[in-house]
Design goal:
220 residues, mainly alpha, 9 helices, 4 strands, elongated, DUF4351 domain-containing protein, DUF4351
Length: 220
Amino acid sequence: MGPALEGISYTVPCIVPCIRPLYSERENWKPNGFGYQLFGCEVGIRFPVVKLLDYANQTESLLEDPNPFALVTAAHLFTRRTKGDPEQRYAAKWRLAKLLYERNWDKQRIIDLFGVIDWLMQLPTDLEQRLLHEVYTLERKVIMPYVTSAERCGVEKGRQEGRQEGEAALLKRQLARRFGALPDAVQVRLTTADVDQLEEWAIKVLDAESLDEVFDQRPQ
């Protein structure tokens, strides 16, 4: 509560520091305030601005910075730079994924950051499948040297189950996008298939004209 002024008390507002990151493609647009006026009264706020385009030539520095937000900024810049070039975007996304594991961050931080990167840097289905395979391989290399033989069996079983569920869900979305609602029998096959079988079907999706061609159920 502020001091009394002619019998009127007032509350001093709490000021919370705020930095606004800008994603706009307009290079010279940097709004650093907001306010409005009414009947001679004016209310407003000013804030510092961080424009991501200002870092367009500092990608390598961002990749070396241990701050997680630097990696997200690099992902945004890579997304802009690789627009219309899926192969280049794949290479950039794979580079960022490897950095996540090299930093030795905890599992939840890796998951959260990869979720942001994955949302920004979307890939065609075939390249996304390739990237996921590379990530699975990398995870095994990172985790396996630090567990005992007994633990390794349990970890591998859990990872295989998790991988099977993930690949089955991804393939289900791909099939539904191409061929519409999936019959119950197809969904059962996806749920019970192993990882190798799911990967084989995922490759067939690229050229198949029907569900029968994906699952080799052509009429005799």
